[in-house]
């Protein structure tokens, strides 16, 4: 399961580089298309959070502790802890968003390149951890569903990163390479997630909902506000619904 979790999160992370490949051929995307793609990514993550993380986390909690109330309280705790963890990282780790600018502790202390990389790392690490935790419970279908969905949403994210780096003056190859590197943090998160859950079955309910809380914080704090900033909220909402429905379908059919 540890090997499965690592390889699946690696595959999902590499989709960031696959999504960035059009930059090599000079393809430009409009702001409204970019917002729709980010909306799609948000929809995939919302659906994955509930269908592949929160609901299985509650089911595991019921199986371990024997009561629905205990499972629900454990899920609530995991969601809150996951959101607080990413909020803390967002507050204290210096990084820079493509539109809102620098955030975190003394962002001026690092180069713009590393600020960009750290910003994307904050986004990608919980996703890789979610894939690893999905495999850590021994459920290959749930892990594959998560890996597929997160890989799908990583492709438009990788393109958005590469296009933004091109806008900052980086060459095409470097833009694709750096976008790919930002996705390679996912197998690290996947390895940590699957290893932690494999140590003790009692970690699984909290681990699943922790990963969900981390992703939900990112969706609300970063992705959705970004897609609504330029007046393309209708397209962004359409993308979100398409992503949510697609991930739901994948989860139900693969599971």
Automatic annotation (TrEMBL):
<protein>
    <recommendedName>
        <fullName>ZIP family metal transporter</fullName>
    </recommendedName>
</protein>
<keyword id="KW-0812">Transmembrane</keyword>
<keyword id="KW-1003">Cell membrane</keyword>
<feature type="transmembrane region" description="Helical">
    <location>
        <begin position="6"/>
        <end position="25"/>
    </location>
</feature>
<keyword id="KW-0472">Membrane</keyword>
<keyword id="KW-1133">Transmembrane helix</keyword>
<dbReference type="InterPro" id="IPR003689">
    <property type="entry name" value="ZIP"/>
</dbReference>
<feature type="transmembrane region" description="Helical">
    <location>
        <begin position="236"/>
        <end position="254"/>
    </location>
</feature>
<feature type="transmembrane region" description="Helical">
    <location>
        <begin position="64"/>
        <end position="87"/>
    </location>
</feature>
<feature type="transmembrane region" description="Helical">
    <location>
        <begin position="176"/>
        <end position="196"/>
    </location>
</feature>
<keyword id="KW-0862">Zinc</keyword>
<comment type="similarity">
    <text>Belongs to the ZIP transporter (TC 2.A.5) family.</text>
</comment>
<feature type="transmembrane region" description="Helical">
    <location>
        <begin position="202"/>
        <end position="224"/>
    </location>
</feature>
<dbReference type="GO" id="GO:0005385">
    <property type="term" value="F:zinc ion transmembrane transporter activity"/>
</dbReference>
<dbReference type="Pfam" id="PF02535">
    <property type="entry name" value="Zip"/>
</dbReference>
<dbReference type="GO" id="GO:0005886">
    <property type="term" value="C:plasma membrane"/>
</dbReference>
<feature type="transmembrane region" description="Helical">
    <location>
        <begin position="37"/>
        <end position="58"/>
    </location>
</feature>
